[in-house]
Design brief:
The complex is a heterooctamer, with two copies of chain A, two copies of chain B, two copies of chain C and two copies of chain D.
Chain A: E1 4-8, H1 9-19, E2 24-27, H2 35-46, E3 50-53, H3 57-69, E4 74-78, H4 80-85, H5 87-95, E5 100-106, H6 122-126, E6 136-138, H7 143-160, E7 163-169, H8 170-174, E8 176-180, E9 208-209, H9 218-236, E10 240-242, E11 251-254, H10 257-269, E12 275-280, E13 282-284, H11 288-296, E14 300-305, H12 311-319, E15 325-329, H13 338-349
Parallel strand pairs in A: 2-3, 2-4, 4-5, 5-7, 6-7, 11-12, 11-14, 14-15
Antiparallel strand pairs in A: 1-8, 6-13, 10-12
Chain B: E1 2-10, H1 15-28, E2 32-39, E3 47-55, E4 69-72, H2 75-81, E5 90-94, E6 107-111, H3 113-119, H4 126-137, H5 143-153, H6 159-178
Helix pairs in contact in B: 1-4, 1-5, 3-4, 4-6
Chain C: E1 2-6, H1 24-39, E2 45-49, E3 64-67, H2 73-83, E4 88-94, H3 95-101, H4 103-112, E5 117-122, E6 125-126, E7 132-133, H5 152-155, H6 161-165, E8 171-178, H7 182-200, E9 205-211, H8 215-218, H9 222-236, E10 240-244
Parallel strand pairs in C: 2-3, 2-4, 4-5, 5-9, 8-9
Antiparallel strand pairs in C: 6-7, 8-10
Helix pairs in contact in C: 1-7, 3-4
The chains are: A alpha/beta, B alpha/beta, C alpha/beta, D alpha+beta.
The complex binds thiamine diphosphate (2 copies), iron/sulfur cluster (6 copies) and magnesium ion (2 copies).
């Protein structure tokens, strides 16, 4: 299948996974990501894989843990409250160095909140759980990327034997957009599971997968080893979008995910303002140095989010000059419109 | 070219399907398109609207705030959105259920879609009639492609149903074309 | 001519375990290893160790073993088995793990009828964390969190896990055993073997509950601890086959 | 009667003494030597009564007993 | 009881809670905090309260939720993996504006990790869960404070109808130290539960406690209301330790909890270096402005933690000059000693 | 002279519910309100609403109500009751809530024998999220996540919660009812009343399972949906008292 | 025979029609008026056969039916 | 005054209790004190040590790196910690189980605590003997207070046991006092 087609964000995630060779999916219903388990319940068996409806998010993440132990490319998806329930499991996966793709289609919080789009799980994604672990966190901005990033997430997860998160929101999950599926594309599978997965100790020494390290110094050393890997990821996998041609700007807008696309509209519309967009694509690793460089030329750095200010902390860490940074955000499912952001910009610029 | 369409009505009127239909035709024409639904908090009888954007360029926010075209199915929808109508907004209104506010600017297509649908003996085609009117009134997507999409989307339905839908579409086109 | 008629099974590594003297975990580890040897499936077995005293099981068994988060063993095991249906997958769990924090995983896995083997060591307390009350602690039992003895009104009743699971259709085989002397060890091994055979024959979910001793936290000598199992535990938790629906 | 003997794997034995209870032939007794882990290792009495019944080995939690059958010539 | 006595950190927490009127405790065993549920199983019934051994950390936090709904001063305690499991429940408590005290006696991670002391749940405490919520987070540094802060936590929780966290570690939990119990001290109970708790609608309108807000804009408004409260907390409840007399320093050391006391030893020992300690006591709210002020006089700002660098991000946000900030941390239960920190300091200073 | 012999109970607010036409949630809300009125405990009742279609219950009942996190109702309810033993506390839950994500809470609360009342609406799917399969969905039932119908091999078996709980000693009263016509509604009300009376009499844990209809997700008219309950559901889930150990 | 009548609380009725099935007297029928929520409200036929049996009200999910007994004078 | 004590041995020797005892006496004397245990990863037969600090001032880290006093119960403990011994470190060593390394600096009290304990017919008092030696050798805490604490900590034990403990304590004091 190729050529332009209209696809829902949630479905694009499911398709990206299947095309990347995901053969184990476990999920529990929660709005606004229900299309994924629903679609997977049909598609996964067709693709020769395993679909399991977990009875809770705890079971979801631990099923994914198990499937990964067995060497299958595996995925789970949920939304904010469900993601909180997965924190322990994710930490275990990182501790055990197990690959796996975790999708968070964020909604309004705290607590039960509502089902409107939100970006208020940024912290939970990039500064997660207990223990000093990290996950590559990809933030798609359109439906093409919902597909592409999910596809690539599996390779990244395998390459680093680490969970990878797709951090998106109900807007991108529920909207449809024209995309091009590149069905010909093959996953790279950079570090095959056969090297480390538990498949029975036939013709080799028994393997163990674990995160408990009780011998004095062993866990400390394990952390250093993990961080060596994380440093490697920082070097190799950092992604951001920043139009090099847009050299001439006073205002730098920093936004991710669905807010980034709105911000592009702001820039296109607000011709009276010399603005450029810096869009972190990997939220972890975060492009600190690159953003810092880009911010130097700006008089003001604007951060737009659908929360009370989370990524803005990383922006401030990059910019190191709070007087330059202006934040505008809306929590609890409030969707900043293009008009609203532009008028904020105009007010602050003049 | 960028066309921003807002479609509004109540659950059960086919509001979301209409949006989807327009976006699909655009995709068929290798244009970029987005479709963004919004439901009321309640499941049924609630408010229903969607945003559709069709463009040759990259589409930014999929939310339509200032529509180029507003398609409204009933009075409540009309009242909720009429403040967004500008000088050059095209308004396609289901005149069976919408009382026109003459003070409003913009180009108007008032078609009695519900009446027409009842006449076609298939209330469910009201949204197809509105689609026809849209295609005729604003030449963003091609009528033939639209009919193609209509057929393929009804693929497995019996031929009588397909015919009625095409008739409905054409009736809508015709009505709007006349104006 | 001499003949070795009893020795260490191949499925056990030649290292000493970290369990306290007389602890039933050691015995059951050995039995599992023997059964796996006898069934000739060492090279396709994947064990799932729990959080609890048996967390180090991967250091003792000579086949592939992973460790699950506390209580999540059966979710992990089920997924492994679904991905590798031709392998032999078993979950090894304590009572805190299986009957307390892992209750939901246990019920749902059993109800799904996953074709795995579960070995459940019920020693009526949280051994690893120092002997707190478990859902399986007997009424009247003094633990570090039931200083006056467990009373039903405040702490609820001891749970009989096998009787709880029995009504579930997905559950095929349930037996309760103990390992307090050679005779009961032989019976226990037979039960464990059956539970593995079931899996190999695609029968479905099997679980063996072992009434285990925890001499350290019970503050009893091993022999005395075994006596307590024989007298008190086995009185409350009936031994034998609870369900056999193959 | 078969003739058996028993080998205690000293570094595996934890001195739990469960095997002693099991041997009805009195062939096992509490030991005096302490292994590296600090456990006093059980001792095979070797009074000629061992019949290689393996009960001691079966009950041994730590797989610390090997049983050897001496073929009757 | 009064006068000096030797007390274990975990017991001090339990005693502080009981003295503050805590009458509901629920907990699940996990090292290194087991002394708390064990002690509570005895003390709570004596004090006329409810002790419940929860069957999981999920049940713990939701029991505390329920007890709080009913108006009881309530507490749960756990350690890192257990705390990850409570993330959803904590977010619900914050969303429902329910008071409650949550104690995290941190241990090494990620995953199962080990049982050695650690500070690697800093992020999870101060930038928590899903949704834009916050908790007052108190970091005691000695056993006296384990008692005092727990005592005060209940008043703070009630005052703001918000969960309050005590963030401590296995070192402080397991060590003993001389403390003075001030048994005479009465809790203030600044906002009695009778004003809002569910106790039956006798002689009043029925009440509801919830976090679901589906009406358009309602959840957004709720978030703004919460943040009004959080801003109030930032103004009124900020705490830090910074010896005003120590005006004369080149090096500013920033550390919290058990590392802060080691850092004091470093300063006392390293007379050759002009150093002062800035110790955040509330980790949220974090004393950004105060630290910034204090950092101005320093040539270097040293951040010492028992993790791979978590609070250091807040320090950097405060200082806004990365070239000044030096971090030394040890993850996975590694305990930085006084000697080790001092030699790091000496190396970096010269 | 006219006499009102049936009207809205005081324990119901005079607002229309958000439930779909014919939805059993509405019926059971009404029955609970009537029972609470009859027992004269409105002013000391505390309800715990679930995450699910009934999450808005606090807008419909005229007494104190809180909302629990998905599946955690019984933990919340138990704690409220422990703190306020003289109040009447009940937990209202759907099948996704009680039998899936809340399984551990259900079993442990029942096993502790908490003196609360649980009203369990089994409508064989996740109503609020759009009709996904629940642990209680019938074999063969087509849902949005079992597009070919639930088969036991992949999805496990439908769980009979009452039969599962029955062996637990802490559990005192279990009855399964339906509300498909006036006769069954009358029976259901009696069962619910008994479950509340038990609490008032300190009898312990009581739970009523209502076989409920979900016309919207089943894509059936209300009457047809009720017929499905009568014919299919009640066939698999036996009606009546499952346990009465008072 | 007792004489009863029924009052439909129009804004509560959701037109589920379950009451119609229940009334063996034919006193209820599908309505034509639509309430604010968009539901067509059931109608009381009032053919004099209503005996105030309350079955319709009992089955009504939405507590939308009040039953009134007219005392036999 | 700040006194940093490190006590090391194996599980079952009463290492932790000895530390606790010293810290309790200090508390009784209104001094500040800390006690920090450390266990081996295994439950039994493992390594056991604790740090105790007694001071008139605020105590910083409770971890003792460079002890003023090192109390060792057996050879393994001695070998592990002897590198920490400086010129002015007091070493109290259980000579029954520890072979003295003469190359080591520091003031040494070598007392055959295990032997003495066996002689007192109560192996469990080995740590009390060590306590007595410490109190005599380093006058940080008062001997009478120590005896008081000993009594109160054994409160409910039978009088024979209490007496034996006091005897053990005194024997330790005496032995160290003589040197
Ligand atoms: C989420 C979480 N909670 C608590 C713990 C602490 N913990 C470790 S082992 C254990 C209990 C083990 O008891 P059981 O399962 O009965 O095994 P046993 O040691 O008795 O064999 C607990 C509660 C943990 N590691 N993780
Ligand atoms: C932790 C979490 N997981 C998932 C959800 C999404 N969710 C909301 S309601 C619901 C299911 C409700 O089904 P059920 O309990 O059967 O109630 P019904 O709507 O059928 O009455 C789910 C899964 C959630 N809110 N929180
Ligand atoms: S604590 Fe108990 S269960 Fe754990 S190893 Fe020791 S005896 Fe066995
Ligand atoms: S084999 Fe039998 S007879 Fe020989 S020592 Fe063992 S138990 Fe005794
Ligand atoms: S049973 Fe085994 S471990 Fe125990 S004493 Fe005998 S040989 Fe040693
Ligand atoms: S979706 Fe189903 S359960 Fe929910 S209100 Fe509608 S009919 Fe009732
Ligand atoms: S009260 Fe009885 S007779 Fe009257 S309308 Fe209702 S069901 Fe019919
Ligand atoms: S049963 Fe109630 S809601 Fe349904 S139609 Fe009759 S009156 Fe209306
Ligand atoms: Mg146990
Ligand atoms: Mg349901």
């Amino acid at each position: 299948m190729s050529g332009k087609m209209l696809m829902k964000g949630n479905i694009a995630i499911a398709e990206g996974a299947i095309d990347a060779g995901c053969r184990f999916y476990a999920g529990y219903p929660i709005t606004p990501q229900n299309e994924i388990p629903e679609y997977m319940s049909k598609r996964m068996p067709e693709a020769g894989g395993v679909f399991m409806q977990a009875e809770s998010e705890l079971i979801s993440i631990n099923l994914v843990f198990g499937a990964s132990v067995a060497g299958a490319r595996s995925m789970t998806t949920s939304s904010s409250p469900g993601m909180s329930l997965m924190q322990e499991g994710i930490s275990y996966m990182a501790g055990c160095e197990l690959p796996g793709v975790i999708v968070n289609v964020m909604r309004g919080g705290p607590g039960l909140g509502n089902i409107a789009p939100s970006q208020s799980d940024y912290f939970q994604a990039v500064k997660p759980g207990h223990g000093d672990f990290r996950m590559i966190t990809l933030a798609p901005s359109n439906i093409q990327e919902m597909y592409d990033f999910t596809f690539e997430a599996f390779d990244l997860a395998d390459k680093y034997r680490n969970p990878v998160m797709i951090l998106t929101d109900g807007l991108l999950g529920q909207m449809m957009e024209t995309i091009e599926l590149s069905r010909g594309r093959k996953p790279l599978n950079p570090r095959p599971a056969s090297e480390w997965a538990l498949t029975g100790a036939k013709g080799r020494e028994p393997r163990k997968i674990l995160s408990l390290l009780m011998k004095p110094g062993a866990l400390e050393q394990h952390n250093y080893d993990l961080w060596k890997k994380y440093d490697e990821i920082k070097k190799s996998e950092l992604r951001y979008e920043f139009n090099e041609k847009e050299k001439d700007y006073d205002c730098l807008i920093v936004a991710f995910g669905s807010v980034a696309r709105t911000s592009k509209g702001v820039i296109a519309e607000g011709k009276d303002i010399k603005a450029a967009l810096f869009r972190p694509v990997t939220l972890w690793p975060f492009p600190y140095a690159e953003l810092r460089e880009a911010a130097k030329k700006a008089k003001k750095v604007f951060v737009f989010e659908m929360n009370m200010g989370q990524m803005v902390e990383d922006v401030r860490l990059a910019v190191q000059d709070d007087s330059k940074v202006e934040f505008y955000g809306r929590p609890g499912g409030g969707l900043p419109s293009q008009e609203e952001l532009l008028s904020f910009l105009r007010k602050k610029v003049k | 070219m960028t066309e921003k369409i807002m479609i509004a009505g109540s659950g059960g009127q086919g509001v979301l399907m209409l949006g989807l239909f327009l976006a699909r035709v655009a995709a068929m024409e290798k244009k970029n398109a987005t479709w963004l639904p919004a439901y009321g908090a309640e499941k049924r009888g609630g408010f229903s609207h969607c945003s559709v954007i069709i463009s040759d360029e990259e589409i930014f926010s999929p939310m339509v705030e200032n529509p180029d075209t507003l398609i409204v199915f009933d009075q409540r929808a009309y009242d909720s959105y009429k403040s967004r109508v500008k000088e050059n907004t095209l308004v396609i209104q289901n005149s069976t259920l919408v009382k026109d506010d003459e003070a409003l600017p913009g180009k108007k297509v008032k078609l009695p879609a519900l009446e027409m649908a009842n006449r076609l003996d298939l209330a469910k085609v009201m949204n197809v009639i509105m689609a026809g009117a849209y295609v005729a009134a604003k030449k963003v997507i091609n009528a033939e492609n639209a009919v193609e999409e209509l057929k393929s989307s009804l693929g497995r339905k019996e031929s009588g149903v397909i015919k009625k839908n095409i008739d409905a579409f054409k009736a809508g086109m015709e009505y709007a074309g006349k104006k | 001519m001499e003949k070795l008629i009893y020795g260490m099974p191949e499925s056990l590594k030649n290292v000493s375990t970290t369990y306290c003297p007389g602890c039933s975990h050691s015995t059951v580890h050995k039995l599992i290893a023997e059964v796996i040897d006898e069934l000739k499936v060492r090279e396709k077995t994947i064990g799932v160790a729990p959080v609890g005293c048996a967390v180090f099981a991967y250091d003792f068994w000579n086949f592939d073993v992973t460790e699950a988060a506390h209580g999540r063993n059966q979710a992990v095991s089920a997924a492994i088995k679904r991905v590798l249906p031709d392998n032999v997958v078993f979950s090894y769990q304590g009572d805190g793990d299986l009957a307390s924090i892992g209750m939901a995983e246990t019920i749902h896995t059993a109800n799904r009828g996953e074709n795995i083997t579960v070995i459940f060591i019920n020693n009526t307390n949280y051994g690893m964390t120092g002997g707190q009350m478990a859902p399986t602690s007997l009424l009247g039992q003094v633990t570090t969190t039931s200083p006056k003895g467990r009373d039903a009104q405040h702490y609820g009743y001891p749970i009989k896990m096998l009787e709880l699971l029995a009504p579930l259709e997905g559950v095929k085989y349930l037996e309760r055993v103990k390992v307090t002397n050679a005779a009961s060890v032989i019976k226990a091994k037979k039960a464990i073997k059956k539970a593995f055979e079931n899996q190999i024959n695609n029968t479905g979910f099997s679980m063996i509950e072992v009434l285990g001793s925890c001499p350290a936290n019970w503050k009893k000598e091993p022999a005395e601890a075994n006596r307590w199992v024989d007298e008190k535990m086995a009185e409350f938790y009936p031994l034998g086959v609870i369900k056999d629906a193959r | 009667m078969k003739k058996g003997k028993v080998r205690i794997l000293a570094e595996r034995c934890k001195g739990c003494n469960l095997c002693i209870l099991e041997c009805k032939k009195g062939e096992l007794k509490q030991g005096k030597t302490v292994n590296k882990q600090g456990y006093s290792v059980v001792e095979f009495v070797n009074n000629g009564k061992c019949n290689g019944c393996t009960l001691c080995a079966i009950v041994c939690p730590d797989a610390a007993i090997e049983v050897i059958l001496e073929a009757e010539e």
